[in-house]
Specification:
The protein is of the alpha/beta class and 417 residues long. The protein has helices at residues 16-23, 47-56, 66-72, 112-122, 148-159, 193-200, 203-210, 212-216, 234-240, 278-281, 299-306, 369-375, 390-399, 403-416, and strands at residues 3-10, 29-37, 61-62, 82-85, 94-97, 104-106, 129-135, 162-170, 181-189, 225-229, 254-258, 261-265, 309-314, 320-325, 356-358, 364-366. The strands form four sheets. Strands 3-2-1-4-7-9-8-11-12-10 form a ten-stranded mixed beta sheet, with helices on both faces. α2 links the parallel β2 and β3 (61-62). The longest helix has 14 residues, at 403-416.
């Protein structure tokens, strides 16, 4: 095997990044996870951590609050070549800068600043590459100052010496079985071959065919771009960042930033391969536990919630208002990729957003945890563990990523570096 890329995986969940990158190992590159952290602050029992440890072992695995690790056990985080993580989408505003080794104050509990802290404190030993994932609304948050959060983040990573490219990817547009839209953020540290290639390549070429994300997810070559200079301290960006249209983010679905100058444009996916469908991942009806079937007397509630509505409603304060929403596809189409899995997918209660399929016998049912795993391209029963409920397993998959998409980025990084 070729060069080993050592990975630190933050906000690891049940291991989607690890599965995808280790599957991307080839003769040129071996991806090896040397340390991972998963901690859920809102629960006493750490179910995701239990699943992670059961599948990958406890060696090099931390189930502590990452901020506590940074405070009193930073040396536990080994040197590594690639830092990955699906960090929560939060407000990245900063109140002020500090004249000390930590550099800045972010809002307490905002986990992007944990990533920043690791990179800054590692110094010369900071990883060569970053691969981060988030919901696509990151590009347009917050609502009253569109794009500010992403601008703060880009500025912080640029100041640490990284070139950053990003793409919003809908997994279904590249043949995967779920319409899951996420932003992928890939960084290259100054001094690496990829950084130098990015500097020397025209931005349009990088975004359409020369970059890592273009290698992973092909796009049409025509692209109109614009330039955004991100200036000022992080506090000044927090206070002042805006576009010429305050209700529209200046950041499009693709872009690259070098030395605080971002070039961004809207790309169009280009894919003509096989498309996986919801129907292909379903297990045989006879193997579905009875509790996943919807009783006839419960079906009207599901039909109502999935249907179109134009009705008068009254708020808790007594205010009367008119409510309207369009119909959902019901039952879900089996000949197309599925809708996005949500964290509330589990449980038997009627819901507008849970998946419902019609079986060959004509019955209606919810998806099983195994089927949800398949839509995220996890191994069958990856999350099956004593003490972990079906509802919790569904929650994991609503929080997870499409493993096949992660693998594509890992393969592209190996090919391009």
């Amino acid at each position: 095997m070729g060069k080993k890329i050592k990975i630190v995986e933050l906000f690891a969940g049940v291991g989607g990044f690890r599965l995808g990158l280790e599957a991307a190992s080839d003769d040129k590159t071996t991806y090896e996870t040397v340390w991972a952290n998963q901690y859920e602050p809102s629960t006493t029992r750490q179910h995701a951590a239990e699943v992670y440890a059961a599948r990958f072992g406890k060696e090099g695995f931390s189930n502590r609050d990452i901020e506590k690790v940074l405070e009193d056990d930073f040396e536990a985080i080994p040197d590594h070549n690639l830092l990955v993580g699906g960090f929560p989408c939060q407000d990245y505003s900063v109140a002020s800068t500090l004249k000390n080794s930590h550099g800045l104050i972010g809002k307490k509990g905002v986990l992007f600043w944990s990533i920043y802290s690791i990179l800054k404190r590692k110094g010369d030993k900071a990883p060569d590459y970053l691969f981060l994932e988030n919901v696509d609304r990151l590009l347009k948050s917050p609502a009253k100052q569109r794009g500010k959060d992403f601008a703060v983040m880009l500025a912080a990573l640029s100041d640490l010496g990284y070139a950053i490219e990003w793409r919003v990817v809908n997994a279904a547009e590249y043949g995967f079985p779920q319409r899951r839209r996420r932003i992928f953020i890939v960084g290259y540290k100054k001094g690496t071959k990829l950084y130098e290639k990015a500097v020397k390549t025209a931005s349009n070429d990088w975004l359409t065919n020369k970059g890592v994300l273009a290698e992973a997810f092909a796009v049409e070559e025509e692209l109109n771009t614009r330039e955004i200079k991100i200036e000022g301290t992080y506090a000044e960006i927090t206070d002042n960042f805006s576009s010429h249209k305050p209700t529209v983010s200046p950041f499009d679905n693709a872009g690259i930033m070098i030395d605080r100058i971002a070039v961004t444009g809207r790309v169009t996916p280009s894919y003509d391969g096989k498309v996986a469908t919801l129907g292909e991942i379903l297990i045989d009806e006879k193997d579905v536990p009875e509790e996943f079937f919807i009783a006839d007397d419960k079906l009207p509630a599901w039909t109502y919630l999935k249907g179109a509505k134009k009705e008068e409603r009254k708020s808790a304060s007594g205010h009367v208002y008119h409510y309207a929403e369009g119909a959902m596809v019901f039952p879900d189409a089996l000949d197309k990729p599925s809708r996005t899995i949500i964290t509330g997918e589990g449980g038997s209660g009627a819901s507008r957003f849970k998946h419902v399929v019609k079986t060959p016998s004509g019955r209606y049912r919810r998806l099983t945890p195994l089927e949800l795993e398949r839509l995220d391209m996890f191994p069958d029963n990856h999350t099956k563990l004593d003490g972990v409920s079906d509802g919790k397993r569904a929650f994991f998959m609503g929080n997870a990523l499409v493993v096949g998409a992660i693998q594509k980025v890992g393969e592209a990084l190996s090919a391009k570096r």
